[in-house]
Design brief:
Blueprint: H1 11-33, H2 51-62, H3 73-86, E1 90-94, E2 96-97, E3 100-104, E4 112-115, E5 122-126, H4 131-147, E6 151-153, H5 164-177, H6 180-186, H7 197-204, H8 208-217, H9 223-242, H10 251-259, H11 261-272, H12 278-285, H13 290-299
Helix pairs in contact: 2-5, 3-4, 4-5, 7-8, 8-9, 10-11, 11-12
């Protein structure tokens, strides 16, 4: 956090990265066998492209304009995940290691990471974070894929990254989610900025922290004013996050999100065609019983 690198990664983080690398390697082989086309947008941008221009291209490719995000943050996250996966990205959103609910990931250690590959680009988002924070993290990691750049990130708008790539990715992700021109039109000239945070966050389906940063970018808050407001809002948000229930929800809803629906469908199809052993499929999908595998296949339309 605060632009500090992960100097001593936890076993939970290391295991998560290793597991995602295994899934990526499997899917790359699957994509080669099934002759899938490379994912066209990977590596299509450079940091020399102006931020607004890059954001417009990414927003259009992902079909994620402000009017295309649904009514809630959950709708917006689901839409962004689905559109990224339709383009060929494996998107994995999980707050635990594998399917082990006793090994919860820490959003203060990392927010997400991107593993670049022409056939199997992968993004992992720490699902222990708030939905609004997950949206920004996913947007940030997708920017890395557009650059063709593998990265481990905290996607922290409260800091000024010294790494120019990170700084560019933060700026582009913020512009993708909250176009500064649209924000200026939405800001009330007579109302204190802090009184508008919640309504603006709902409008753009982002966190209040992202709104604060964009308000600063729009010239309505000085850097010192922004930093003070950011720290106050971050304290409030983290307190809410700490009070959240630890319930995991329905397995058939959460597990496909954890491993990527695109990945899960591919493993199921490969297994039913006899190319992958059930034992290996169970291990990759976090399953234990054939009946669970069959139910998951049915729900994903891969049976």
């Amino acid at each position: 956090m605060d632009d500090a690198g992960v100097s001593r990664p936890s076993p939970d983080l290391l295991d998560t990265i290793f597991q995602c690398q295994q899934r990526q390697e499997w899917y790359r082989d699957f994509a080669q066998v099934t002759r899938e086309d490379p994912v066209g947008f990977v590596g299509s941008l450079t940091t020399s492209v102006p931020v607004v221009e890059a954001a417009e291209q990414i927003r259009g490719t992902l079909r994620f304009g402000p009017s295309e995000r649904g009514h809630t943050w959950s709708d917006a996250l689901r839409t962004l995940v689905d559109h990224a996966e339709e383009l060929g990205v494996l998107v994995m959103v999980s707050g635990v290691v594998g399917a082990n609910t006793h090994r919860k990931l820490d959003p203060e250690e990392f927010r997400g990471f991107a593993l670049v590959d022409g056939l199997a680009p992968l993004v992992f988002v720490n699902g222990a974070d708030t939905k609004a924070a997950q949206i920004f993290t996913l947007a940030h990691e997708l920017v890395h894929l557009f650059l063709g750049d593998t990265a481990l990130d905290d996607a922290d708008l409260g800091a000024t990254p010294t790494n120019p790539v990170e700084r560019w990715c933060n700026q582009v992700a913020a512009e993708v989610l909250v176009p500064v021109g649209s924000l200026r039109d939405a800001l009330s000239p007579d109302m204190a900025v802090t009184d508008e945070l919640e309504s603006l966050a709902r409008r753009f389906k982002v966190s209040t922290l992202v709104v604060l940063r964009r308000v600063h970018d729009a010239g309505r808050l000085s850097w010192d004013e922004y930093r003070t407001a950011y720290q106050e809002e971050l304290t409030r948000v983290m307190a809410i996050l700490g009070e959240r229930s630890g319930t995991g929800g329905n397995f058939f809803n959460t597990q496909p999100a954890r491993v990527s629906k695109r990945f899960a469908r591919a493993v199921i199809v490969s297994t039913l065609e006899g190319q992958t052993l059930h034992r290996d499929a169970f291990q990759m999908l976090g399953l234990k019983k054939l009946s669970t595998f069959e139910e998951l296949a049915s729900r994903l339309g891969a049976g």
